[in-house]
Specification:
Number of domains of chain B: 1
CATH architecture of chain A: Orthogonal Bundle
Largest sheet of chain B: 6 strands, mixed
Distance between the termini of chain B: 30 Å
Structural class of chain A: mainly alpha
Largest interface: A-B, 19 and 27 residues
Number of strands of chain A: 0
Number of domains of chain A: 1
Radius of gyration of chain B: 18 Å
Strand content of chain B: 25-35%
Number of helices of chain A: 11
CATH superfamily of chain A: MetI-like
CATH class of chain A: Mainly Alpha
Shape of chain A: globular
CATH topology of chain A: MetI-like fold
Helix content of chain B: 25-40%
Order of helices and strands of chain B: EEEHEEHEHHHHEHEHEEHH
Order of helices and strands of chain A: HHHHHHHHHHH
CATH architecture of chain B: 3-Layer(aba) Sandwich
CATH topology of chain B: Rossmann fold
Strand order of the largest sheet of chain B: 6-7-8-3-9-10
CATH class of chain B: Alpha Beta
Distance between the termini of chain A: 43 Å
Oligomer: heterodimer
Number of strands of chain B: 10
């Protein structure tokens, strides 16, 4: 009896210890980024362009613009393709082709992000040069599988009875899918979309040779653009103390953005 | 006859569940299909509005005439059939995240009815017919999934009524409900038969006796006996029927 109680205690303790082990790095990162980044943060930092090397001040407004552009553009590409393919696989995919699509998608989900960058480089940059669009395409390649899988799983979670109820009302199948099943699966799909947004906002590697970076604002989707992760990468590896501080500041901004997206996901999932 | 089933056989893959069933369903009557578990009664019901074929590998042979027209004719659109024949399922299945109002209105809305007043009228009318109006009239915008099981089932009935079908199919509509909710559904069916033709599948013999005018007894996919409920329950012609009705198997 005592042994059993002891074993129970030991197990609980072990679980608790591993929770600490998981949380410790997270808090350490949050603390470091917040304390170092806070020094860089100011209205000026968010609203002005980078200052020339050696000059004090300057900000990352162009990188914020770039990250917003890249995120919106890649979501614009990802959501229609991801959701549509998820619908296909969940509702219509009963063939060899569907199996093939599913396997291809799950393989794509494991693609290293740098490879996605290479893909976009070959497809777009090699013809039309560096651009926000090229960056967004690379990012989309990374997260289309995420949205597709989330959509498929969310649709499969909708009880069979609900789908039959729609069909028994004499509704066409596409209407049942579009107006009833998608509505029931909304939370899961939205969660997948938000998670991929967070991923897109934080990716660096595929942007290095697609959206490339820009010292000023991008004039449009066909111009090269900066991005927060790019700024962090470039500034952090530079020899200037001033830039290091700014890199921390940019990291803090990015972290806050990703954190708020993740909180949004939790809200959505709990519905 | 509202519906005539002619030599209907049905399969799941290579497994035959209905063997050449023939029977008629009279207009504005309640016809009960009874029989032990796995006898094919639900399959027979789902063949009447072409829901059976939605299962992978399911197949049907024979004819089902609705007002004299074979619903399995290649020229017939199954969607049109399902519009004329509504269905209520064993497990209450409202659209859980949709409001109570939309649960009832969705069939019309998706059929292109935009007129708000007309939609309100139909929703109120159907909820009243389903004896649910008084309980939900102040919370029509709440999700249907939040109602109790019995209320959900009545909501499903209202939803089926909204597209104004001619026939209503009930697949063991009370087996997931408490006795009081079950009784309400039974009373509801009795009041609905003035306007609709009703077919109900039930494993509850007493329920069949209480609500139905005609009863069909199925056993292992074969229609053993079919006739007026009052007559069949008193003097079953077939020995199997008698044994089933007296609870010797099932």
């Amino acid at each position: 009896m005592r042994l059993r109680k002891l074993a129970d205690r030991a197990f609980t303790l072990a679980c608790f210890a591993s929770v600490l082990l998981v949380l410790a790095p997270l808090f350490s990162i949050v603390y470091t980024v917040a304390s170092r980044g806070a020094r860089a943060l100011s209205i000026d930092f968010i609203t002005s362009l980078p200052a020339p090397v050696g000059e004090a001040g300057g900000g990352v407004a162009n990188a914020i613009q770039g990250t917003v552009m890249l995120t919106l553009l890649s979501m614009g590409i990802t959501l229609p393709i991801g959701v549509a393919s998820g619908i296909y696989l969940a509702e219509y995919g009963r063939s060899r082709l569907a199996d093939l699509v599913a396997v291809a998608r799950d393989t794509l989900a494991g693609t290293p992000s740098i490879v996605a960058g290479v893909f976009s480089y070959m497809l777009i940059v090699s013809r039309w040069g560096f651009s926000a669009l090229a960056g967004a395409v690379a990012l989309s390649v990374l997260v289309i599988p995420v949205v597709s899988k989330a959509t498929e799983e969310a649709l499969k979670m909708v009880p069979r009875e609900v789908k039959e109820a729609g069909l028994a009302l004499g509704l066409r199948r596409w209407k049942v899918v579009a107006y009833i099943l998608l509505k029931e699966a909304k939370a899961g799909i939205l969660a997948g979309a938000l998670l991929s947004m967070a991923r897109v906002a934080g990716e660096t590697a595929p942007l290095l040779f697609t959206s490339f970076g820009n010292q000023g604002y991008a004039g449009g989707f066909l111009d090269p653009c900066s991005a927060l992760p790019l700024v962090i990468y470039v500034y952090a590896t530079s020899p200037y103390e001033e830039w290091h501080t700014q890199a921390w500041g940019a990291a803090l901004l990015l972290m806050l953005a990703v954190l708020s997206i993740n909180l949004a996901v939790r809200r959505v999932v709990r519905g | 006859m509202k519906i005539e089933v002619k030599e209907l056989s049905a399969w799941y893959g290579s497994h035959q569940v209905l063997r050449s069933v023939s029977m008629g369903v009279r207009e504005n009557m309640i016809t009960a299909i009874i029989g032990p578990s796995g006898c094919g009664k639900t399959t027979l019901l789902r063949c009447l509005n072409r829901m059976h074929e939605l299962v992978d590998g399911a197949r049907v042979e024979g004819e089902v005439l609705l007002d004299g027209e074979n619903i399995y004719d290649p020229s017939v659109d199954p969607v049109e059939v399902r519009r004329r024949i509504g269905m209520v399922f064993q497990k209450p299945n409202p659209f859980p995240h949709m409001s109570i109002f939309d649960n009832v209105a969705i069939g019309l809305k998706l059929a292109g009815v935009r007129d708000k007043r007309k939609l309100r009228e139909v929703v109120e009318d159907c909820l009243k017919k389903a004896a649910l109006w008084d309980e939900v009239k102040d919370k029509l915008d709440q999700p249907g999934g939040r109602l109790s099981g019995g209320q959900q089932q009545r909501l499903c009935i209202a939803r089926a009524l909204a597209t104004s079908p001619e026939v209503l199919l009930f697949d063991e509509p009370t087996s997931a409900l408490d006795p009081i909710s079950a009784m309400r559904i039974e009373n509801l069916m009795l009041s609905l038969k003035r306007e609709y033709t009703i077919v109900i599948v039930t494993h509850n013999i007493q329920q069949a006796a209480r609500v139905s005018d005609y009863t069909a007894f199925l056993y292992r996919g074969v229609l053993v006996e079919y006739g007026e409920t009052a007559v069949m329950f008193k003097t079953p012609r077939h020995k199997l029927t008698e044994e089933y009705l007296t609870g010797r198997f099932g």
